[in-house]
Design a protein that fits this description.
This protein is 42% helix and 7% strand. It is mainly alpha-helical.
């Protein structure tokens, strides 16, 4: 992305699989985890929940063979127009993603839909309102 080349599925899938493994590990130790990433496609979100390629994986825990190793995931979909997001991206300093790649992100985006576990929050809200909405849903 730093070179102005959008990531493709082959670039993202190993990274998402690693994130799934980290989520499983941390949740298994009783941690509550917040992960911020652009899981733009449903298949990417499925990988975060179920592992590589969205395929069910078996737990490594004794006595739990045959059970799927899934992460309970709430997707927070921050929705906004290209113009709003472009303006905010231009205000970022030192971010790895060049603003020229924003259109590729919009082209790739598959907004979450039922039966996915998600909430959608408009970027028209300020940061305090966004945080309050997320916390209310998590209660």
């Amino acid at each position: 992305m730093r070179k102005g080349i959008p990531l493709n599925d082959q670039d993202r899938i190993p990274w998402l699989s690693n994130l799934h493994d980290i989520l499983l590990r941390d949740v298994a130790t009783g941690q509550h985890v917040v992960l911020a990433c652009s899981a733009l496609k449903k298949v990417y979100r499925d990988i975060l929940i179920r592992g590589k390629d969205g395929a069910p994986q078996k737990c490594a825990e004794p006595g739990k063979e045959g059970k799927v190793a899934e992460v309970k995931l709430l997707v927070v979909h921050l929705s906004g127009s290209f113009e709003i997001i472009s303006e905010r991206l231009l205000q970022r300093k030192g971010h790895f993603m060049p603003p020229e790649l924003l259109q590729s992100q919009f082209d790739t985006l598959e907004p979450p839909s039922a039966p996915e576990n998600f909430i959608q929050i408009s970027l028209d809200k300020n940061l305090s309102e966004i945080i309050a909405t997320i916390l209310q849903v998590l209660k």
